[in-house]
């Protein structure tokens, strides 16, 4: 085949990991405009001036997908609180931080989101599942090549907040900047912070507008305790926040009751799912085409939860994506670091499975088009280029090496961050 140099840019890498097909040693990825036009081996029949640019000891992966984050915390230099602190104490710290931020300047939220986007791009992320607590700051994001789903967070345990939060949800879904790059979604926050009627209203809206939902669920033992019997540390926390009303949450509930309500929405992301029981895992595997779980490995570790039921969920057929959560519980927004954490905590999980979680599973969880999260001709040219130690003969072992760095990120055919070591051919 020939490479019309004016339109097609072709790159050779020590390894190409298409995700949906086997790794290719000394592979080629060619892109034209915003799409991939070729993924495969070097056929060696090109014109001399159309030769692919050899990037050397690098691997080309699909753009990484961070399926769960809260970019408004991206200005934090370190997580809030301390590792292993009780979750309810951490929530109180987050509430305090938000109040402070609101008091300072609402524009600082937009600046933090912009900072989080820049960090994500530097780290090879080309798609986000973002939870937003204020109107999306288009003025800060429109010039950025990254995209994804912006889930408007809805919070309200008291019946007085149902109407106002429902109004915020409707407002978020109004046409505006939404399109192929950024799509709208809704996020009823968590069972301990959302009135059941507000949840039903939000599910109904999602159904009518055909948008995805994300909800923090089965995150802590304390949440299960609250739902089952109104016991545990959530009760004093909610009382302290002035929102506790024992009549709002019926006793004897569990995450499965929430999954049944959420399942009425067209697409659902269950955030964390740290303490899902076997029947809840089965419920999700029966609906894996439209319900996914987002595992946030370093946040899981920060709170020192019980071992994550990853192997059980994978063998049941649940689709699992990866998220960083925010800088309020994680040191940065690196998906590679999350993948390393999975590899360290779950030695039984194959590396290609971990890579799928960080790419195609995230894209599918968020409802991206079918070719997102994989390298395939006709798919979007979203690429992550990572540097490798010289002479790597194994396509995966380096993925979990602490020294592995993202060198460049390409979003829809444009270099969005980094460089190819002085390669000047790449379109700006
Ligand atoms: Zn979260």
Task: Sum this structure up briefly.
The chain has 428 residues and is α/β, with parallel strands linked by helices.
The run of helices and strands is EEEEEEHHEHEHEHEHHHEHEHHEHHHEEE
Number of helices: 14
Whole-number radius of gyration? 22 Å
Shape: globular
Strand content: 15-25%
Structural class: alpha/beta
In the residues, how many domains can be counted?
Answer: 2
Look at the structure and give the CATH class of the largest domain: Alpha Beta
Mean pLDDT, to the nearest integer, reads 91
The proportion of residues forming helix, as a percent range, comes to 25-40%
Main β-sheet: number of strands, strand sense, barrel status?
Answer: 8 strands, mixed
Ligands bound to this protein structure: zinc ion
Show unreliable segments: 1-5
Whole-Å distance between the termini? 25 Å
What is the name of the CATH superfamily of the largest domain? Metal-dependent hydrolases
- What fold name goes in the CATH topology slot of the largest domain? TIM Barrel
The number of E-state strands comes to 16
In the CATH hierarchy, what is the architecture of the largest domain at level 2?
Alpha-Beta Barrel
Oligomer state equals single chain
Task: Give the tags.
23% strand; four-stranded parallel beta sheet; Urease, subunit C, domain 1; binds zinc ion; globular; alpha/beta; 428 residues; eight-stranded mixed beta sheet; TIM Barrel
Describe this entry's structure for a reader.
- The structure is a single chain.
- The chain is an alpha/beta fold and 428 residues long.
- The chain has 2 domains: 8-62 and 373-418, Urease, subunit C, domain 1 (Roll); 64-365, Metal-dependent hydrolases (TIM Barrel), CATH 3.20.20.140.
- It is 31% helix and 23% strand.
- The chain contains 14 helices and 16 strands.
- The strands form 3 sheets. Strands 1, 2, 3, 4, 5, 14, 15 and 16 form an 8-stranded mixed β-sheet that branches.
- α3 links the parallel β7 (125-132) and β8 (147-154).
- The longest helix is centred in the N-terminal third of the chain and has 18 residues, at 87-104.
- It is globular and about 75 Å long.
- Mean pLDDT is 91; it is low at 1-5.
- The protein binds zinc ion (ZN).
């Amino acid at each position: 085949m020939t490479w019309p140099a004016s339109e097609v840019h072709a790159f050779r890498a020590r390894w190409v990991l298409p995700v949906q097909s086997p790794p290719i040693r000394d592979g080629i990825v060619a892109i034209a405009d915003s799409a991939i036009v070729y993924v495969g081996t070097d056929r060696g029949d090109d014109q001399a001036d159309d030769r692919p640019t050899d990037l050397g000891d690098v691997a080309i992966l699909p753009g990484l997908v961070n399926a769960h984050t809260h970019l408004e915390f991206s200005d934090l230099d370190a997580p809030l609180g301390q590792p292993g602190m009780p979750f309810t104490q951490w929530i109180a710290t987050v509430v305090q931080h938000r109040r402070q931020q609101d008091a300072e300047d609402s524009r600082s939220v937009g600046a933090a989101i912009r900072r989080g986007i820049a960090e994500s791009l530097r780290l090879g992320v080309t798609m986000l599942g973002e939870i937003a607590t204020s109107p999306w700051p288009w003025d800060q994001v429109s010039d950025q090549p990254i995209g994804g789903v912006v889930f408007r967070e809805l919070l309200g345990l008291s019946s007085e907040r149902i109407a106002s939060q429902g109004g915020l949800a409707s407002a978020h879904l109004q046409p505006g900047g939404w399109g192929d790059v950024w799509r709208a979604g809704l996020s009823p926050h968590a069972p301990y912070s959302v009135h059941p009627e507000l949840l039903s209203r939000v599910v109904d809206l999602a159904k009518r507008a055909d948008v995805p939902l994300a909800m923090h669920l089965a995150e802590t033992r304390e949440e299960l305790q609250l739902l089952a019997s109104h016991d545990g540390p959530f009760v004093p926390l909610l009382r302290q926040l002035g929102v506790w009303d024992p009549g709002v949450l019926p006793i004897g509930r569990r995450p499965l009751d929430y999954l049944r309500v959420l399942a009425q929405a067209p697409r659902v992301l269950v955030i964390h799912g740290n303490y899902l029981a076997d029947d809840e895992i089965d419920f999700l595997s029966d609906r894996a085409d439209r319900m996914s779980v987002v595992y946030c490995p370093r946040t899981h570790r920060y709170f020192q939860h019980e071992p994550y039921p990853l192997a059980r969920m994978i063998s049941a057929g649940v689709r699992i994506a990866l998220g960083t959560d925010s800088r309020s519980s994680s040191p940065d927004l690196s998906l590679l670091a999350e993948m390393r954490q999975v590899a360290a905590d779950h030695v039984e999980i194959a590396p290609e499975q971990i890579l799928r979680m960080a790419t195609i599973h995230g894209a599918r969880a968020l409802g991206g088009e079918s070719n997102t999260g994989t390298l395939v001709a006709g798919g979007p040219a979203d690429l992550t280029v990572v540097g490798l130690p010289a002479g790597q003969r194994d396509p995966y072992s380096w993925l979990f090496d602490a020294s592995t760095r993202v060198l460049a990120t390409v979003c829809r055919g444009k270099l969005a961050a980094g460089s190819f070591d002085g390669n000047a051919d790449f379109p700006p």
